[in-house]
Task: structure prediction
Amino acid sequence: MVYHRRNLQRIIELNKCDVSVILNESNVFYFTRFPRAYGTILIALRDGSWRVVTPLLDFWRARDSLRDVEVIPYAPYDLEDVSKELGIKVKSLESIMKSFIKKLKITKLCTDDVCRIKKYVDGDVKIIDISDDVSRTRAIKNSEELELIKHALQITEEALWRVLESLMPGLREVE
Result:
């Protein structure tokens, strides 16, 4: 994850952004290794600190697996009753994002999904599309990723040989 974190920080610095907001689930997984990141948003600040905003149902799983990242839960709307009971603030995604941008006085924001981020950002904030930068970064594989690819190829090759060995005349597709 350190390798991926460094790459995202480099993208932030190259684009001179205050913050990067990663909305695409596969990109969130790539940078955080948080599996099944549906609805999860990664916020990476220029100072190197990261926050993950995740649905309330995934909050504890995210908090347990992302140790060096602040995890913030969200719900479809503000949940004050739940907040008191659980001891954590649970706000809507829109209010979290808007207050975050306002509190940190963000003037330039990088994102991998310009269309989705616009509903959280006022006109004063400049939005930079980094989807191409992220794609280029993801295309370059490190040694760990290459080992995973090799392992996947070995599994695929083994399965293919088993299928080829079981082929015989008169065999139907179902079999």
Q: What stands out?
A: Strands lie at 19-22, 41-45, 50-55, 70-75, 91-92, 108-111, 126-129. DSSP finds eight helices and seven strands in the chain.
